[in-house]
Design brief:
This protein is of the alpha+beta class. The protein has 11 helices and 12 strands.
Length: about 400
Amino acid sequence: MNEISPLAMEPTRAEHAATVGAYLEAGEERARALANRGPVRFGADGKLHPDILDAYWERGFYVFEGVVGEAELAELRADADMMIGRAPVRPDADVDAQGRPALGRDYAREPYTLVKPLSDPWGGTDKLNGRHPHRMTQPRPDEGAPDYVVFLMYGMCQAMPAALRVYGHPHLLAVAESINGADFVPYNDAIFVKQAGVGGSVAWHQDGVTHWDSPDWDEGSHGFNFQVQLYPTTPANCLWVVPGTHKGGRIDIKRRVVENGGDEKFPDAVPLICEPGDVTAVNRQMLHGSFANTSPDKRISITMGFHRRRSVLGQRGKLSMGAGEVYDEQRIFERSAVIQVAIDARRQRFPEEASYRYRPFDGLEDEFRLNDETFERVIRDYNTKDLAI
């Protein structure tokens, strides 16, 4: 008796794109109706405008429009294209598609995650602490699709000069201060790559592990992520969020899918639609995810996370390299130094722009100017010191 493989039961790429059309359109209407987007605005005190902060805390996200200009976008795109082009051809390879040594063979941490086209690498597995309990639809790719595609890239501050500079963007860091306090600290960074017609999905999940059962848990306990969008994002390729879910604690995601008739297309979710240069801020406790990109449009999102210092100090690492290590003052200082070097990298490239003042490094600015010495001391393999809770 012949068994039907699970893949054979999945829709084709074209079938998936056709069947989700009405849902995507409805989601876009819901997103447009929310008052959760606009340019970055600050009050007289230099803090993020109270209206924006209120909107962020109420719904758990905000779309900042037009943060990154065209010239800087061009540099970011060029660096991202370089990094994608230098990826290994498969997970165990040492060369890229042109036969050159793949980027990062000398990095302490592998800078790429490759996946099968249109697949869900985490859903329904125990990976990443099992926080993606439902496997998303995995459409069958078109004939001739590559065996593997780039899904995530890491170590951007080491590999991409333009990414190091955007990490020091004064408006973004001022937003981070307004949300997490002047002594805020970094989490990690990664670049999500959703290539047209082959990009994988990210199953519905909530980020964060450490503080769900803490007596002082609140809606900001696990920080937030920025995503700098290098290209237009559409309902078909972008991140989706369920507004307000950052405030209710841990969600039984599998039950939520069952109660939705087994359908992963939640009726209260909204897509984070953006233009190039827009930046989203998303609370890490939000229920969020993305579908396989069966559309003709690519998405590249530079993702940077930030925490409250008090949420990290004294905790043990979760989720990534260094799990179990205690985050003491020295460890936090060493990872936070990347922010200060990034601020100076940006100053060197954009001298007319007012630099951000990062309070934990007051008086130490000259020790963390970007040069060959600080690159080796602070930037090289910096992501082995990520602060994951």
